[in-house]
Amino acid sequence: MIVRQSIQNCFRELALSTPYEDISVTRICKETGVSRASFYDSFQNKETVLSSIVQDDVVDSQHRMLETIPTFRIKSSPQILMELIYQSIADHERFYSRINRVEHGSLLVRILTERLSALNDVVLKDFELPDDEKAYTAFFFSAANASLISRWLTRKMDVEPTRLAHLFNKWTLSYWQKISPVKQEWME
Asked: pLDDT digit string (tens) for 27-82?
């Protein structure tokens, strides 16, 4: 775990001052004092380092919340879950803004989409939908959210995380209400 964290921390630091294209496994290993073998025991490449950072920053907080609050069991849970995602990005604004630069912004969108889609798979597991619809629903909302985050970063986070969460929920809650196994009045 110490090696993994050391590599992630180095990657974060490098990303703040170095274009993504110029960050290399060799440089990470040199700066952390970690052997290439140890690097590859933890990660496949620098993209998987970035993906693990997104997982730790954004998705793991969601998993902890879902363990605490059963999915959509309380009126405000969609707002809370979205706020957590956006606040996690805001907490590391400089890092994510650098990664979101035009040259590789699609990389961040792709990684966020993959990670959020896996999270949505967990959220949707108890929903009574055909498997293909679950998969496409998870992807659709993840891709929309990832693109929204990219746009938000490009606009220098011009709205607060709570406002962005409110907007995303305003655009999406009607669908979630329609398919939810828990019928209730949700927060709008």
From this structure: 999 999 999 999 999 999 999 999 999 999 999 988 777 777 655 554 567 888 89
Distance CA 27, CA 99 (A): 18
Fold held by 47-179: Tetracycline Repressor; domain 2 (1.10.357)
Residues 6 or more apart in contact with residue 67 via CB below 8 angstroms: none
Q: Tokens 């929309």 — which residue? A: 144
Q: How far apart are CA 117 and CA 15, in angstroms?
A: 25
C-alpha to C-alpha distances, 162 to 56, 57, 90, 125, 132, nearest whole angstrom: 21, 17, 11, 26, 32
In the block, tokens 């993840």 appear at 142
Task: Quote the tokens at residue 129.
Answer: 């939908």
**Residue reference for tokens 């993209």:** 47
Question: Domain 1-43, what fold?
Answer: Arc Repressor Mutant, subunit A (1.10.10)
The CA–CA distances, whole Å, from 101 to 53, 88, 90, 109, 112 equal 17, 18, 16, 11, 15
Return d(Cα 185, Cα 188) in angstroms, integer: 9
**Dihedral pair phi/psi, residue 53, rounded to 5°:** -65, -45
User: pTM for the complete prediction?
Assistant: 0.89
Domains of the chain, by residue range, sit at 1-43, 47-179
Alpha carbons 172 and 95: distance in angstroms, whole number: 28
